[in-house]
Design goal:
The protein has helices spanning 16-30, 90-99, and strands at residues 10-14, 33-40, 43-50, 53-59, 82-86, 106-111, 116-122, 128-132. The chain is α/β, with parallel strands linked by helices and 144 residues long. It comes from Actinomadura citrea.
Length: 144
């Protein structure tokens, strides 16, 4: 196969009323900054960045989903479940987020099959964010 991919961004739909609060949440809580913001007929687009990570906020009139209360109740089929941010020190990040009032949905936990530790939080809209500490084995590698 000759296709080659790299990750560019995650897109999140939200209502215009939630846009400023969501920009503030990602800025205050996870250290993202606004890279660009522009309007298109009926929509506002905001690109948030933190290092190589980009999130596209798309403000359109839509139905709001109820926030997720724990990671197991979030396993509904046929929808994007979460996006993942790699962190160097999961315990330090979890401590800092707790100090900011962010509640964990799950973890920290170790996924032995990946040799990786993870935790889950949600943003102000209820979107699930996985935080993953580097593992000892590459995902998809076969155990010895």
């Amino acid at each position: 196969m000759s296709l080659s991919f790299s990750h560019d961004h995650v897109g999140i739909n939200l209502t215009p009323e939630d846009l400023d609060a969501t920009i503030a949440w990602y800025s205050r809580t996870l250290g993202f900054t606004v890279d660009r913001r522009f309007d298109s007929p009926g929509m506002t687009f905001v690109f948030l960045v933190h290092g190589d990570v980009k999130i596209e906020l798309m403000a359109v009139a839509s139905v709001r989903q109820e926030p997720i209360e724990d990671i197991l109740s979030s396993m509904a089929p046929a929808r994007l479940h979460h996006f993942c941010l790699a962190v160097t020190d999961l315990d330090a990040v979890v401590t800092e987020l707790r100090d900011l009032g962010v509640r964990l949905l799950g973890g920290p936990m170790t996924i032995e099959e990946l040799g990786q530790r993870i935790a889950f939080i949600s943003d102000n809209l209820g979107n699930i964010i996985e935080l993953a500490e580097p593992g000892t084995r590459h995902p998809g590698a076969r155990p010895n």
